[in-house]
Design goal:
Blueprint (H helix, E strand, L loop, with lengths): L1 H22 L6 H8 L5 H6 L2 H21 L8 H15 L1 H7 L10 H10 L1 H6 L3 E2 L2 E2 L1 H18 L12 H15 L1
Antiparallel strand pairs: 1-2
Length: 185
């Protein structure tokens, strides 16, 4: 019974992701997801409680996917900060609707344990690259590095970076940042 419940949940998350990618977060509804998954209209509410619960599961899957991409080994001759930032921006470029949802506290249940755990996992590689955590919390350098990558991803999505100069790509900007951090340490 548990396996069929897990299978249903996975089908619904996949359907919600497809709705998100096709129509944007504003048009994702329990009913549309049920229709796409080929299940009763009550199935999403049964599995997730409400729309926020369903979107939380989609966002958690997004953070888990991001964590997996960031956790992949960084080549030895590459700056970890630049590489992780570049991967972060690339994830946002490949998954614009998902990336948008992942950072919308008004759309998800911020207390969902799976979402909290997946968010924390998505910082794991950056915490390691910036020297760990202090008293269980990311260091200031970790937060600043994440904020830079997040800001670049958001600006890139809006077309603001490309309008500056051809050299102002997220990857080039992240490489400059990594050099500054390395020099200051």
């Amino acid at each position: 019974m548990e396996s069929s419940r897990d299978d249903l949940r996975a089908r619904l998350v996949a359907a919600a992701r497809a709705e998100l990618d096709e129509h944007g977060r504003g048009r994702v509804s329990l009913r549309a997801v049920a229709r796409r998954a080929g299940v009763s209209h009550a199935a999403p509410a049964y599995s997730f409680g409400d729309r926020a619960g369903m979107l939380s599961a989609v966002a958690a899957e997004g953070f888990a996917q991001l964590a997996a991409e960031l956790d992949a080994p960084v080549p030895e001759d590459t700056s970890a900060l630049a590489e992780l930032g570049t991967r972060y921006v690339a994830f946002a470029q490949r998954n614009p609707a998902l990336y948008d949802l992942m950072f919308r506290p008004d759309e998800v249940d911020e207390t969902a344990p799976d979402l909290i755990a997946a968010r924390q996992a998505s910082l794991r590689a950056l915490i390691a690259a910036t020297g760990g955590a202090e008293e269980g919390n990311p260091t200031a350098l970790t937060v600043i590095s994440w904020a830079l990558a997040h800001g670049l991803a958001s600006l890139d999505a809006q077309g603001a970076i490309g309008s500056l100069t051809t050299d102002a790509t997220p990857a080039n900007l992240l490489a400059v940042y990594a050099r500054v951090v390395e020099v200051s340490h």
